[in-house]
Design goal:
This protein is an all-beta fold. About 0% of the residues lie in helices and about 45% in strands. It has a five-stranded antiparallel beta sheet with strand order 1-2-8-3-6, with no helix packed on it. The protein has a three-stranded antiparallel beta sheet with strand order 5-4-7, with no helix packed on it. The mean pLDDT is about 90.
Length: about 110
Amino acid sequence: MAFACTTPAIPTVQQDDEAIRITRWDFEPGAVTGWHSHGWPYFVVMLTAGTLRIHDGKAENDVPLAEGQAYMRPAGVEHDVMNGSPHPIAFVEIEVKQPGALKTLSLP
């Protein structure tokens, strides 16, 4: 079940290869990602302080996060994310497709 909202969050894929996908998400107040799940475990790092309103299909929970704060979630959790703040927010999401491949990555 998704939030009732017509304002989408804006994803900008920064890297997408065999090992990881890095996406920056920008949200206006009230913007949402839409109902989804991830095929891989992932990390989120907040670029701005704000409140993520998370809908898990049963309940909505407000999660206040500080600038620079990070968290991780396992693959397969269905959810929708809304900016519950009165100001724009942004975060970077890092999905780990092949953890073993990260050991052999070289710098650009």
